[in-house]
Amino acid sequence: MTRAWLPGRRRLAAGLGTLAAVEVVAAVVFTMLAGWSVRDAFDAFVVTNALMGFAFGTCGAVIAWHRPANPIGWLFLADGIGHATTAAGAPLLQLLRDSSAPIGLQRGTLTVIEWAWPWSIGLFLPLALLLFPDGHLLSPRWRPVAWAIVLTSPLFALEMGTGGEAPFEGGPTGYLKLPSYEALQPLWTLTELRGLLAFLLAIVCLVIRYRRATETGRRQLLWLLLAAVIALSLMIPWSLVAGTPVFVLLAIPLVPVAVAVAIVRHQLLDIRLVVSRAIAWGLLSFVAIGTYVVLVAITDSFVSSRFGRSAALTVVVALLIAPVLPRLQRLVDRAMYGDRRDPARVASRIGAELSANPSGGLDTVAAAIRTALRFPYVALETPDLPSSSIRATPSAPDRVVSMDLSYGGASVGSLLIGLRPGESELTLADRNVLALVAVPLAVAVHATRLSAELQTSREQLVSAREEERRRLRRDLHDGLGPALTGVAFTADAAANLVTADPARASELLRSLRTDTRTAIADVRRLVDDLRPPALDEVGLIGALRQRADQLSWRADGAPIRVRVEADELPALPAALEVAAYRIATEALTNVVRHSRATTAVLTLRCGSGLELEVLDDGPPQGPWVPGVGLQAMCDRATELGGRVEAGPTPSGGRVAAWLPLNLYGDASSVEMIEQHRGGLVEPPANEPAGSLAAERAERAGRAEPAGRAERAGRAERPARDDFTSRSAAPDE
Asked: Does any domain span residue 673?
């Protein structure tokens, strides 16, 4: 629809709405002029028709004004004009009769009265309900239903307009009467069934729409449900008590009001809360009236003769119904808001999801929160995880509230909650439940992040191991391999020339000795890269003292005195020894290269872990800028679960490292030290021989005195290995 048509359609909507309102005013004026009482107006259906005409006409005008393309507004306008015309025509006919107006005018007026309102009930209202709320059919499959309602609607008008007696005794009847009206009674019965079927199909269509609709569509449909609940609440007690459904006719105008609000202003308020309360009170009214009827039937012969039926039964019903309302309210609230009144139930459900997905099923947890609390949208934002957002629904609504998830004082993510339609913020009940759920959820997010970091560390370890293997293979293949091959060829050549050409054989042997020493140097280089040999020869403290002796001069040529102070250390795991040695040597090297210190002290001691500290007396030079060396120290400590602190102090520079002694994960530090000292550590029963754990246990379980004596003996001998001794044998 183009904008050029908009003003014209709005003027038409306003004009038709005004026509319906004028007819309602005319009905009131004609009723007063005719001298009818309120009872007379009710009996002639003037009150109900006028009320429905005004409600449908006004609401239809509002819908057509704001949504001209939606046919529901125009259907409501036609419905309102039909009811308003009938309401104004009934007292007008009385005035015409009292004024002795022409019979033809009276018959014409009566014909209009009889034929105006049936179209509202038989065509306009069921078709509008079939198109609610967007003005389109649910699917093409519903087109035959719509056409059936349209094509069969004249039957109801024929039934209401062609039969019946004159409204006044001795007065004229309307036009278009059928003489054989009574003979067509089976047809009129089918017409009544057709009307019930039309409204039933409209209700079925609304139910299907609700199941398939989005949150906005469901909220619109809930407005109509609210009108239906109120209408039933008025109909049931009035029908049982008064025996006539007059209040049903008075409640029908609630339908156009609800439809107009749903189409034009569906976000007016929290319709879920209103429907919750309405359903609760509707059920309560039904139970109250039902209980009243049952009690009347049972206690009529006992109570009425003594206490009076009304007073006694009213008290009994009140006492019986009082505990029912909270239960009904809880049931309705659970359907509309989930389990927010029972935080323990929500927490139990989330705990069950976390238990069922220990490896990190955060997507199912978000879905569980959404289902438990009936939120339209729930998402977990966890920037540290590989998936930046794990959502329970594909798209977020317009209003989303974020709740921070913290663990140990640090934020680990955010919980995004989509507000229910009509809510501007989370209610206190929702916040209390989410605050309870946020604690285990933060723990789960933290555990998932740790699991992801562990997996990343494993991948890095595997990658580093493969890179190291590749380097060793390359060094062995490109360096040691050709050298040993040359040694073998030279040895064969010398063996062949020993008898024929001794001089040449002697020359080849000298070349063989040189190549062998080169190969030995390559082996020593590979071994040194894997682990400093001094650690196995003289131990950690001895290796550090050797390194301290080598660092006697600063980079500027000035002398520096490096001293090592160490307590007696237990047998340490290989990884711990290497990390401590690398960190200490790097710290001492930095002192020699970058400071102007004259003295440096390296201290080693065992407490809760291996504590390493390097202090120098160099003058302060401002904040330290982290470089490759400092980063390497931190990485080595972090790999073992330790930490490094480095920076200037008023008296010089300081580097402190702490490394955990317990690398096995199954004993405390003190117990581990005692086991090392006593040689009690055995390989785990489930570890095969030669495994890493078995090797560590074997190294840790060596006799301490023998190990120290062996290291001391190695320290006194020259640092020569078997390869060197054997290669030097010919010269000796």
From this structure: no
With beta carbons less than 8 A apart as the criterion, state whether 576 and 663 touch: yes
**91 neighbors 34 (Cβ within 8 angstroms):** yes
DSSP lists the bridge partners of residue 613 as 603, 656
Are residues 150 and 246 located together in one domain of the fold? no
Question: For helices 343-356 and 428-475, what crossing angle results, to 10°?
Answer: 20
Q: Do 132 and 147 have their domain in common?
A: yes
Rounded Cα distance between 619 and 249, Å, is 98
Residues 225 and 321 in one domain: no
Per the domain annotation, does 182 fall within a domain?
no
Range of the domain at 575: 532-661+702-726
Long-range contacts of 676-679 (CB under 8 A, 24+ apart): 676/570, 676/571, 676/572, 676/700, 677/570, 677/571, 677/704, 679/703, 679/704
Are the CB atoms for 280 and 328 separated by under 8 Å? yes
- Report the alpha-carbon distance of residue 725 to residue 709 in Å, rounded: 22
Distance CA 56, CA 669 (A): 84
Q: Are residues 425 and 479 in the same domain?
A: no
User: What's the number of CA atoms in the CB half-sphere (13 Å) around residue 534?
Assistant: 13
The predicted pLDDT at position 636 comes to 84
Per-residue pLDDT of 451-505, as tens digits, reads: 777 777 777 777 777 777 777 777 777 777 777 878 787 888 888 888 888 888 8
CA angle centred on 184, ends 179 and 186, rounded to 5° = 165
Could you give the number of structural domains in the chain?
7
Helix (H, G, I), strand (E, B) or coil at 661: coil
- Could you tell me the pTM of the whole model? 0.48
Q: Do residue 353 and residue 440 come from a single domain?
A: yes
Edge-to-edge strand order for the sheet containing 609-616? 561-566, 599-606, 609-616, 652-660, 643-649
Tokens of 570: 């237990």
**Pair (560, 708) in one structural domain:** yes
The answer to whether 402 touches 416, Cβ cutoff 8 Å, is: yes
Is residue 504 a part of any domain in this protein? yes
* Residue among 225, 53, 199, 18 nearest 125 (CA): 199
7 and 71 together in one domain? yes
